[in-house]
Amino acid sequence: xxxxxxxxxxxxxxxxxxxxxxxxxxxxxxxxxxxxxxxxxxxxxxxxxxxxxxxxxxxxxxxxxxxxxxxxxxxxxxxxxxxxxxxxxxxxxxxxxxxxxxxxxxxxxxxxxxxxxxxxxxxxxxxxxxxxxxxxxxxxxxxxxxxxxxxxxxxxxxxxxxxxxxxxxxxxxxxxxxxxxxxxxxxxxxx
Length: 191
Hints:
The chain is an alpha+beta fold. The protein is 34% helix and 19% strand. It has helices at 14-22, 30-48, 89-94, 109-114, 155-178, and strands at residues 52-59, 62-70, 82-84, 101-102, 125-131, 137-144.
């Protein structure tokens, strides 16, 4: 098997960093998984030059923020916060009403119409669904900057999509371990 360095990847390459952080192992606890996801979000935020990166879950008609990494410059969203799914940018991305990659939300007609509804500004916005093996959409992996980026990189969407796939794998691994093992009913009967 070829070494990642032989394939042209540098140790600081974002894809390698994310893959290493998200490698699933059977013995990791939920807190280790949460820590890995938080570290990946921080890495994405730093490397992509975004102000906010988050992982949301869709639950009972709401979007719930499960993991959030921000620059802390402005108050935005927090872990555990939620809002109506149908009114969220995330749902609009999932159902195709909003593009997954928006370089400047003010110049995108659909996004621009939504900006007045937010308590903070959005410049560049990138979002992708987290899809489980069953085809169920867990939620989304999203990031945005408060102002449009000077040099937006369309490859950032591919990076976010890869990270969403790895996140789905990790989440599925957690849910498999968290389900209790059911013992089969049995009884001793005399011969």
